[in-house]
Amino acid sequence: MDLTIDKDLENATLTVTATFAHPVEKVWDLYADPRKLERWWGPPSHPATVVEHDLRPGGVVRYFMTSPEGEQYHGRWDVDAVDEGKHFEARDGFADADGNLVDGMPVTTMVYTFESTDSGARMTSVARYASTEDLAKVLEMGMEEGMTLAMGQMEDVLADA
Amino acid sequence: MDLSDAEVDRLFHALADATRRDIVRRTVQGELSVSRLAEAYPMSFAAVQKHVAVLERVGLVTKVRRGRELLVRSERDTVDRARRALDELAAVWEGRVQRMTDLLDEDSGD
Question: What angle do CA A44, A101, A13 make, to 5 degrees?
């Protein structure tokens, strides 16, 4: 596994490029199969549950993450474009418990590309926010998740030592 | 940050007023509600709101709603928070890619 992350503050964009020693179809399946998606989308402390999954143009993917205290954080993707196995675009936003987008909350435009390489597959994710202000808001919304994640990773490091 | 001449003019105009300079000074210390700011000056709530709007147009402050309060926040703070948000999102993705790899390894049955 090889991972590069580019943080572009000016354009409020995060670009993730990851390579995997597995066929590109398997990497695509991590998104296309809701049961697989929920095994990696949320951190171990906040596992994701996918309640609706229609990865087609115009389709919706709805999910929630559950905190250790049992609180649910809902999100939804509105799928804009899909080129099966190769590419998809969706807007990821904060939702209420009924799955409706919450007004005034930042929305991420996600563009995913999947390619075959000599040794497996490469996935590129470009996540863009509308503005620096929106990006700053994510900190408030995602703070708990981020903090818990960081703590989890710290534990892993300690366990390895 | 690259500014055009017109933007520099607007910035200087925004800061040419003592109240507006004071608003910038106060919000750099931490976000403040418009009502709290209004208490600090011998002028109406609406007048303070106008000053805030001038600062907002040139990008020195941003307004955020929290519950019933309208908070004024220094733009410097916004950029700093955005930078931290990117750091956190990067950490989120490090975790995700690790879990994706683990899952792929697991499913390929080795």
Answer: 65
Structure tokens at A65: 């993450």
Structure tokens that stand for A92 in this block: 């990821």
For B82, the closest of A132, A143, A153 (CB atoms) is A132
pLDDT digits (tens, 9 = 90+) for A42-87: 888 889 999 999 999 999 999 999 888 888 889 999 999 999 999 9
Q: Which residues of chain B lie closer than 8 angstroms to A138, CB-CB?
A: 85, 88-89
Beta strands in A9-161 (DSSP E): 13-20, 48-53, 60-66, 72-83, 87-95, 107-117, 120-129
Other Cβ atoms within 10 Å of B87 Cβ, number: 15
CA B33/CA B38 separation, integer angstroms: 9
Yes or no, beta carbons of B82 and A9 under 8 Å apart: yes
Amino acid in the structure at residue A66: T
Closest Cα in chain B to A29? B104
Please give, rounded to a whole number of angstroms, the shortest distance from the CA of B42 to a CA of chain A: 31
Identify the pLDDT of residue A40.
94
Q: Is the ipTM of this complex over 0.90?
A: no
Measured CA to CA, the distance from residue B42 to residue B31 in angstroms comes to: 20
Closest CA–CA distance from residue B104 to any residue of chain A (Å): 7
Q: Inter-chain contact A14–B88, Cβ cutoff 8 Å? A: no
